[in-house]
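Appendix B, example 12.
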Amino acid sequence: VFPNLCLTRHSLRVLRPISAEETEVTQKVVELPDVPDDLNRRNMARVTRTDGPAGHRSQDEFEMLERSQH
């Protein structure tokens, strides 16, 4: 599993190396059963803000991932 699976409080991310130059990243937001819909919506919004294309956390992580592959 390590280092291809990243678990957070709100999501799971799978990194799949395609080649020495390319890695596919798939992220799934955890949707909790039996909780108010508003909670799942807030979790989705939080993940989008931090890990989405314009998110602050994923930019740093992907930069370090790219550096580690060279």
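The beta strands are 5-7, 11-17, 23-29. The CA atoms of residues 13 and 23 lie 12 Å apart.
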